[in-house]
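Input set for joint prediction.
Command: fold jointly, output tokens.
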Amino acid sequence: MWSVWDFLQSHFDQIVFSSWQHLSQVLQAWALATVLAVGLAALVYRSRILSSAAFAPVGIVIAPLGFGVAPAVAVVTLFAILSILRNTIVGLMGVDSAVVDSARGIGLGRVRTFLQVELPLARPVILGGIRVSAQMVLGITAVAAYLLGPGLGRFIFSGLSRLSGATSRESVLTGVISVVILALLLDLVLVGFGRLTTPRGIRV
Amino acid sequence: MCETTTPEVPVVSGKSILLEVVTKRSTGQKSPAVDGITLEIPAGKIAMLVGPSRCGKTTTLKMINRLIEPTDGRTVLGGEDVTEIDGDGLRRRIGHVIQAGGLFPQLTVAANIAIVPKMLGWDRTRITDRVDEVLELVSLDPADYRDRYPRELSGGQHQRVGVARALAADPPVLQRPVELARFR
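tokens >
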């Protein structure tokens, strides 16, 4: 176990840098995914057919991108979209129609109804999707390092590629544990954000 | 208007509603949902639409505030032809008492009531005063109920806040769809 400690000490700067890169890529991909997914959901949630068809094309988009940093980001973003999109659609469909009808009845327009009534009410479910996707993205970003992407994945893959060589085990462990720590921290932030911003009226 | 009213004569505030041969035809339906209805409701009077299920009561009501666009005919509100004006704007001028469960659960009672006055651009003090006024009107103590959330209300209180919200912007016309047929 002391060898892990030594490895951590000797590679400290590199680990911090990679963690930062990892987190930065995760946040970028995931912010992009949130915007895309919620926007797409807003377009399709009124139609049952579109809502179920919205997932199908994602896999097709990934295929022709090849290898490199750009496709690594693209893959991660597209995976992140999946759970956010699903949850946003489910959340929006789950809003009580009596509330939506009364919003229209008292003179809120379509856009206002969506922004002031449907979206806030669907928010807990959407945030659930965002949390799931954040965890997924952290993991997938590590794997995406295989496609030459940045981040903590390089510790894992450089360790695995020279298995049983010097400090290979330490390298893999460092990568994996760092990813886990990042995941825990990010989830904690998201849970806190959800708690603080959910209005008392719809808190469970 | 500068006319004096004697206490015996009740002041008629409000506007008349006139439907002129209004028809609603839905695509794919053989017979129209509402077929050439002509109806005048005088200002200050209470009118009730009664009939069996699917006879067109709700459709008629929704054509008055244009949640459903009439296929044909004219709707007139207090002498003003409102057939073509913006539906959202029209609905802000028509008090709409909600069905059970129609308050916005994420907003407090006061915020629910303030929605329409806010959209109409009232200033803050006027809105606050009005919220308290309509809450008193429906016999709910503003100090106690203003900051509650809908889920902290009983069914009857929920309904009364619904009435308060419909009255908030002092609309000349009030609508109240009821669904007695919906047994639970």
